[in-house]
Design brief:
2 copies of one chain form a homodimer. Chain A is an all-alpha fold. Chain A has helices at residues 8-45, 52-68, 73-97. The first copy, chain A, is built from 3 helices and no strands. The first copy, chain A, is elongated and about 55 Å long. At the A-B interface, α1, α2 and α3 of A face α1, α2 and α3 of B.
């Protein structure tokens, strides 16, 4: 293949990837909308930001789903870890803003 | 609030989160299906697995989208980085399997 001009095969693949990425980003934004409500609720009732038991359940459930979908389970675990760490950061901030830090 | 029994408010939030997570995982699986085709194509025509210019474009585009969706752009960048690193890993493997390593 030449280095000049647009590679149409690659451009078609990339157009699909771009659509999927936009959907992923909007879905992640929706997820954080829900977890922000969880964070506000946890801060209000005094629940800790992190819940290791729930996290382990999530990772196990999604790893199984990932495997069925032909996705590397170690990747799905890294992905969920990234998301959960961001959520805990939000929850900790919500807790601090609610003046419950340190209890 | 008590530590006993099911917290229905939290359970309702978590049910939404679980649905969103399942959708995210399936969408990621779909994304990797496309990038596997890209990897096979790149290996066939001799394109390198990584394309830094394309990556920078993707990160810029998604950061903008993330900001509009009220998502932390630094999170969306970390997310895309994780995905792209996994894709490059796949592409490198495809290239090696096609016997083009080192050229």
């Amino acid at each position: 293949m030449g280095g000049d001009g647009i590679d149409e095969t690659l451009a078609a693949f990339r157009s699909s990837i771009d659509n999927i990425d936009a959907t992923l980003i909007l879905l992640l934004a929706e997820r954080f909308k829900v977890t922000r409500q969880v964070g506000a609720y946890k801060a209000r009732v005094g629940l800790p930001p992190a819940d290791p038991e729930r996290e382990n359940e999530q990772i196990a459930r999604l790893s199984e789903l990932a495997e069925r979908a032909n996705l590397d389970p170690s990747f799905s675990e890294k992905f969920l870890r990234l998301v959960i760490d961001e959520v805990i950061r939000h929850h900790t901030r919500a807790r601090n803003e609610a003046g419950r830090a340190g209890d």
